[in-house]
Specification:
Blueprint (H helix, E strand, L loop, with lengths): L6 E13 L7 E10 L2 E7 H7 E8 L3 E5 L1 E6 L15 H16 L2 H18 L1 E8 L2 H11 L2 E8 L10 H14 L6 E3 L2 E2 L7 H14 L3 E5 L3 H11 L3 H7 L7 E5 L5 H10 L2 E4 L1 H6 L7 H6 L3 E4 L12 H16 L7 H15 L17 E5 L11 H7 L6 E6 L2 E5 L2 E2 L4 H19 L3
Helix pairs in contact: 3-4, 3-15, 5-6, 12-13, 13-14
């Protein structure tokens, strides 16, 4: 009898508690994952995988949770440079007297590059493997993603009035088209179309933007119903709430993402479910800016597709998806005085598989299954605040924090191992970000 021949693969991750997030919610104790050409070829007990496969590189996951990477479905990455900038002021004053003037002064391709790389360094440490970005000079975001190995869905931020890049709407839309063409076949970079909102972009321009997205089969995203004032202003100007306006313009659908969705009524929730329109819940930014608390239990109960996002550090201060997970898992219970308003499993699902599905990547990532791409993170359980553990989803929703992620793998490539970033020069990124912030601080002192 000939000896069993092992198959040579690129990477083995062995000995961990593998949380697959598959349809059966499979969890494999002392599990292992075999990876070849960036794809998962096996998820099984370690004894089985190690008997069948050998690899040139091995990751010992003993004492770790092994799970899919997190999906940050809404942010403005380069606003990492405005973290903590002019905090604790009324929203209108903060925007009109501080943030928007500062962006006019400091946002350029170079600052977007360093701000985005700073954001990516933070997100990789948190365990984010895919994020959605809405900002300016998005070609710099694409290049930063290529450098870091992260996945990104990016879109040039579109306003009726020219933003910091000094491009009027039609010209900015042309730039977005250029991005769609330039990066259509570039791995890890997907281009979307993202007008800012229904209160900063006219109905005619919203229709133009959606037509471009449809032409390329791209995601279409915008802020919607974030504040009560926004809803009132849009209704006064158009006769419709933001969601009803989008419906009246035939702009809702499965390729559409609404960021925030805090102020929605029952009929609007039903409309979003009927059209399969996605919503990205950003609980911490909504709380910090006093925007309100989204009706997450009603959205989920109504069949609306919901993911999680951090928003940008100018309005939330960090990219800590674990903070969003914990807040989303708890705030709705308190607000509704209902212990069953949300569950740990629901929120973990939102931060992984639901997010991937919203962005059109549900067949590729979001769960650990053979055939899917290997976007994987490892969480160190050998920490006092993670001992003991009776339920892994409870730990993920209520106890795990950003410093517990030790290893991040994207498309089968190690981009962080044992808390050391492998694709970015962290000292260089932090140094350049500090230099930009020094200039911003000097400018702020004159306000």
């Amino acid at each position: 009898m000939s000896p069993h021949k092992q198959r040579e693969v690129d990477l083995l991750v062995t000995g961990g508690l593998v949380v697959t997030l598959d349809d059966e919610w499979t969890v494999v104790e002392d599990g292992a994952i075999a990876i070849e050409d960036g794809a998962i070829v096996s998820v099984d007990p370690s004894t089985t995988v190690q008997a069948d496969y050998t690899a040139s590189e091995n990751v010992d996951a003993a004492g770790h949770i092994v799970m899919p990477g997190l999906v940050n479905a809404h942010t403005h990455a380069a606003t990492s440079l405005f973290r903590g900038f002019a905090d604790d002021r009324p929203l209108k004053e903060w925007l009109e007297q501080y943030i928007w003037p500062a962006e006019q002064e400091f946002v350029n391709p170079d600052t977007v590059r360093w701000g985005t790389l700073l954001a990516m360094a933070e997100m990789l440490r948190v365990g984010v493997t895919l994020f959605v970005d809405m900002y300016f000079h998005e070609e710099m975001v694409a290049e930063a993603a290529i450098q870091s190995g992260m996945r990104v869905v990016l879109g040039e931020l579109l306003f009726d009035i020219a933003g910091p890049n000094m491009l009027a709407f039609d010209r900015a839309l042309d730039c977005n088209r250029d991005l769609l063409e330039r990066y259509r076949d570039v791995s890890h970079v997907s281009v979307s179309v993202q007008p800012h909102s229904t209160y900063t972009v006219s109905p005619d321009n919203l229709v133009k933007a959606k037509a471009l997205a449809d032409e390329y089969g791209a995601l279409f995203g915008l802020h919607a119903s974030e504040t009560a004032q926004e809803v009132a202003d849009v209704r006064a100007r158009t006769g419709f709430s933001p969601v009803r306006l989008l419906d009246n313009l035939a702009l809702l659908g499965p390729s559409v993402l609404l960021f925030h969705g805090v102020h929605l009524d029952d009929e609007e929730i039903e409309l979003l479910a009927e059209t399969a329109t996605g919503v990205v819940h950003c609980p911490e930014a909504n709380l910090k800016l006093a925007s309100g608390i989204a009706r997450l239990p009603d959205l989920l109960g109504g069949g609306v597709r919901v993911g999680l996002g951090t928003d940008g550090p100018a309005s939330n201060n960090d990219f800590n998806m674990w903070g969003e997970i914990q807040t989303a898992a708890k705030i709705h219970r308190g607000a509704g005085q209902d212990m069953m308003a949300t569950s740990a499993k629901q929120i973990v699902y939102m931060a992984t598989r639901a997010g991937a599905d919203l962005l059109g990547f549900g067949n590729e990532i979001g769960s650990l299954e053979p055939g899917k791409r290997a976007d994987i993170i490892l969480i160190d359980l050998d920490q006092p605040h993670l001992v003991p553990m009776y339920d892994v989803y409870s730990h993920l929703a209520y106890a795990v924090g950003r410093s517990d992620v030790t290893t991040t793998i994207i498309d089968g490539r190690l981009v962080m191992r044992n808390r050391r970033l492998l694709t970015l020069d962290e000292d260089e990124v932090v140094g350049n970000a500090r230099e930009v912030s020094r200039k911003i601080r000097q400018w702020l002192a004159t306000r």
